[in-house]
Amino acid sequence: MKFSELTPEQLDQAANMLKAIAHPVRISILNCLEDGKKLTVSEIHSTLKIEQATASHHLGILKDKGVLNSKRDGKNTFYFLKHENLTSILDCVSKCSCS
Amino acid sequence: MKFSELTPEQLDQAANMLKAIAHPVRISILNCLEDGKKLTVSEIHSTLKIEQATASHHLGILKDKGVLNSKRDGKNTFYFLKHENLTSILDCVSKCSCS
DNA sequence: TATTAATATACAAATATATAAATATTATGC
DNA sequence: GCATAATATTTATATATTTGTATATTAATA
Questions:
Q1: In chain C, which nucleotides are within 7 Å of a protein Cβ?
Q2: Which residue lies nearest D5, CA-to-C1' measured?
Q3: How many domains does one find in chain A?
Q4: Of A39, B42, B57, B69, which has the highest C-beta tally within 10 A?
Q5: With an 8 Å Cβ cutoff, are B18 and A17 in contact?
Q6: CATH number, position A86
Q7: Are B55 and B43 within 8 A, CB to CB?
Q8: Number of A:B CB contacts under 8 A?
Q9: Mean pLDDT within B34-52
């Protein structure tokens, strides 16, 4: 799939997905969710030492833009990567930003 | 290199790099520069049918954030990818946003 | 040197995003 | 139903980004 074959809508969706990822807190969240891990809002909030509302907010953005999925289980909501291979983006950028 | 091993500064740089890419016009620009191609501002501006100033502006952002490099040759400035493997980000996102 | 081509920058208006604090919703267990 | 825990949403303020238009810079050439 070449980008030149994408419709403007798909191009926008790709940009929105990347925009969602392109934030220090949200990169850190994705880092927590590597290897198929499913974590609750509380776990993210305590692990990253950020406000509960902030964690929920960023998780909501990532879900809204198609990066994450979530599954409610009682009082908890577990978040996880929608596409496992998205972490390869992180690998690539971390390589590029360290050289 | 795991992200958890990145310093806050490197995390910010990675986020800035992704933010630079995360825009429909700039994704289209990167798409033009695949396979090591080097293009001038004029070529980008006519290929993508955007204003000259807009092309220059977006190219400047991509260069400033470490995504592109440029080389002046007389009246022309040629832009090209700084890290060839950055296009793998596009491949990944295009796959994810089409499924 | 004057003209033209190619690129880059400055500015302003509209839009979008980030952050924190407060409040609301959803679900459990007594 | 009431209290509590876990999430989610709202609101307001500050900041950043995008876009177009105009202008400035840089380089070649007549």
A1: 5-10, 17-23, 26-28
A2: A75
A3: 1
A4: A39
A5: no
A6: 1.10.10.10
A7: no
A8: 125
A9: 94
Q: Model pTM greater than 0.85?
A: yes
Q: How remote is the C-alpha of A16 from its chain's centroid? A: 12
Q: Which structural domain, as residue segments, surrounds residue B91?
A: 3-97
Decide if B90 touches A, using CB distance below 8 A. yes
Q: Which of B73, B25, B67, B19 is nearest to B45 (CA)?
A: B25
Among all residues of chain A, which has the CA nearest to that of B31? Answer: A3
The values of phi and psi at residue A27, to 5°, are -65, -40
The Cα–Cα gap between A79 and B22 comes to 23
Give pLDDT, residue A2.
53
pLDDT tens digits along A38-97: 999 999 999 999 999 999 999 999 999 999 999 999 999 999 999 988 888 888 888 877
B41-44: long-range contacts at Cβ-Cβ below 8 A with a sequence spacing of 24 or more? B41/B76, B41/B77, B41/B79, B42/B76, B44/B79
* CA distance between the termini of chain B: 29
Beta bridge partners of A40: A78
Q: CB distance from A19 to chain B under 8 Å?
A: yes
Output DSSP code: residue B4. G
Query: Residue A81 has which token pair?
Result: 């990567």
Are the CB atoms for A40 and A53 separated by under 8 Å? no
Beta-sheet pairing, B76-81 with A39-40: unpaired
Rg (CA), chain A: 14
